[in-house]
Design a protein that fits this description.
alpha/beta, D-Maltodextrin-Binding Protein, domain 2, 2 domains, 8-stranded mixed beta sheet, 4-stranded mixed beta sheet, 19 helices, signal, maltose binding, SBP_1_CS, SBP, transport
Length: 436
């Protein structure tokens, strides 16, 4: 009897000892419970950081917003993502310039995208509205792999939110069958227009979206005007109605002589149609149109902007397109994984091949497919003479007043000084209304 009792006690002690040895391992949190790196002990006693793998949530599905030109890219990447993670991707068309504003409305209602393409200038507005999740899990990887300016563009108050996809600016596409090259300065453009234009036949030398706050900025930037001081970060210093801004407005207004249309008569679809039909010699656009223009204009070229009458190059806006993860997504892990995959070197190169968009990824931009492309090299050259769109929230108060200002200048011939003063006053008034 004593022997049996001793055996039972011994067995109990062994079981307790074994349970104690396995207790630490059984309590280690999973990736889903704690996605932060853990610290493990190596055999020699040294500590080593072991980063756990980010895993999608069970049953995750994602809606991705992007422009129509990127549908093929998203669907192709979606297939790869589904095979790797078992997460289906649904593409929904939404312009990058409109997505953040739409998410401010749709996100809280639970009907927005999980991942969406946006333009960096709306980052501040999105942050203020609580639209984004920070790019935290892949932060260091994103910083190491992408152009520094692209990273800064999607960062606010030292927190990175976006996953940079492409950098862009605009330049002048031209039909080599209609004009051998883009003139070096605007005097050359004006002289060519005198011989080429035929407004009754919808035939024009040079066209851009004349009523747009975005497409007209190259005139103001080239003359030395600016939206906000301190590299676009100081909303108390608006430089659009200074001496340089007024000179830019005067010159812009004078170009009505070679493009005698109303601002509402020109948009990208009209320009594209005229360009394809051989009725437009020079068409201002960005690298995203390289592929589509090449399909309809057989002898296509692209050039930097003509110099302004002050002898300076035009300085158009430049921007960064990036994917963002919604703060309202039900599947943040899956969304972060897809945003990271679609912005990888491989997919940025594929994006360049499909749309001509210039990669933000450093290795992708150095790929021979990019460096040997004559169109990409011109846009990169123009990028050097460009101005990044401000990303602070106050920038949201620029487009509408500026659009109204250029319409007054172009359609009604109003006094440039008066128009620009009114425009700046309207911006300041908008700031006060928002702050109140």
């Amino acid at each position: 009897m004593k022997t049996k009792l001793l055996n039972v006690l011994l067995l109990f002690v062994i079981v307790v000892a074994l349970a104690g040895c396995g207790g630490t391992a059984s309590q280690t949190p999973t990736t889903e419970q704690n996605p932060d790196p853990t610290v493990a002990q190596e055999p020699n006693g040294n500590s080593a950081a072991v980063e756990e793998e980010l895993k999608p949530e069970p049953g995750a599905t994602l809606i991705v917003w992007d422009g129509g030109e990127d549908k093929a890219l998203i669907e192709s990447a979606g297939k790869v993502f589904a095979e790797k993670y078992g997460v289906s991707i649904t593409f929904s068309e939404m312009s990058a310039s409109e997505s953040i504003g739409q998410m401010i409305t749709d996100g809280p209602a639970g009907i927005g995208a999980d991942v969406f393409m946006g333009v960096h200038d709306r980052t501040g507005s999105g942050v203020d509205a609580g639209v984004f999740l920070p790019n935290d899990w892949f932060e260091e990887e994103t910083k190491a792999n992408n152009n520094e300016l692209a990273v800064l563009a999607v960062t606010t108050d030292d927190i990175m939110y976006g996953y940079p996809m492409s950098v862009e600016t605009s330049a002048v596409f031209y039909n080599k069958d209609l004009i051998s090259e883009v003139p070096a300065d605007w005097n050359g453009v004006i002289e060519f227009a005198k011989t080429f234009n035929d407004p009754k036949a919808n035939k024009f030398a040079y066209m851009w979206d004349i009523g747009s706050s975005y497409w007209n900025y190259g005139f103001f930037g080239g003359y030395g005007a600016y939206i906000f001081g301190n590299d676009g970060t100081d909303p108390t210093d608006i430089g659009l109605n200074n001496e340089q801004g007024v000179e830019a407005a005067k010159f812009y207004q004078s170009l009505n002589a070679i493009l005698p249309l109303q601002t509402s008569d020109v948009n990208k679809d009209i320009r594209k149609s005229l360009f394809s039909d051989g009725k437009l010699a020079m068409n201002v656009s960005g690298p995203w149109d390289t592929v589509s223009f090449g399909k309809t204009v057989k002898n296509l070229g692209v050039s930097v902007y003509p110099n302004l009458p002050n002898g300076q190059p035009m300085k158009p806006f430049s921007g960064v397109k990036a994917y963002y993860v919604s703060a309202h997504t039900k599947y943040p892990n899956a969304a972060k994984l897809f945003a990271n995959l679609i912005t990888s070197e491989e997919w940025q190169i594929k994006n360049f091949e499909l749309t001509g968009a210039l990669p933000a990824n450093k290795k992708a931009s150095e790929n021979s497919k990019v460096t040997s492309d004559p169109f990409a090299s011109v846009f990169l050259a123009q990028f050097k003479n460009s101005v990044p769109m401000p990303s602070i929230a106050e920038y949201a108060q620029y487009p509408t007043p500026m659009g109204a200002a250029v319409a007054s200048l172009w359609n009604e011939g109003k006094d440039p000084k008066e128009v620009m003063d009114n425009m700046v006053n309207q911006m300041k008034s908008n700031f006060n209304q928002v702050s109140n």
